[in-house]
Amino acid sequence: MLQRRSAEHWAGRLYMRRISLRITRVLSTVTAITPNGLTYLMMLTGVLAGAALVIPGIAGAIAGALLIQVYLLLDCVDGEVARWRRQTSLTGVYLDRVGHYMSEAALLTGAGLRAADLFHKHGPTSQWEWAFLGTLAALGAILIKSETDLVDVARARSGMTAVEDSASVPRAAGVARARKAAAFLKFHRLVGAVECSLFLLAAGIADTVHGGLFFTRLAVVVLAAIAMLQTVLHLLSIVLSSRLR
Question: 20 to 30 A from 94, CA-CA: which of 77, 109, 118, 173?
């Protein structure tokens, strides 16, 4: 399992697989929980992580980050249990993708609501521009995943086979270089659930030291900008590659 490097998140390779394999062994032998049941729990945990960010102060940022770690654990365990019991299914793959969509969108929306400071000590506030930016970031995260998934949809509807890895390289030299630079900098990962939760936790710690919500709001601006930029760049990367040919 630990040798499965492709499509594996760095946190899974670094530490989570070592934990999840132990949990999987127990769940597979002692409980009757299904892989899809674990995926539903993953979805719920991801959504709760976004909701937890609304809690004022550092407590909300810590709760969000911890819940995302549970979400990542369940994301590892559901597939492991499915393979252990030989219960892999198309439904499970579909639910897993939906879970990632929901969780990342919930987390980024929660970040915007946190920056809006809904539960200010002097009463509710109405700084909804921050909530808008968080929602914009969530929309970008969904669109980025959709752009990738819709390649397979378009190819399947045209009677074509799954895309080869080599086809993902843009044919235009300039776009190819930009893609390599983005892959090297990995800035797009900030809108992913794990990285986003840690980024928001760091911002929450900085706000605790500094006072106010300056760093959380700065984080939301950065996340929205990355999500929108990556949406456009990713779309160009797909259209200018051979994936749709």
Answer: 109
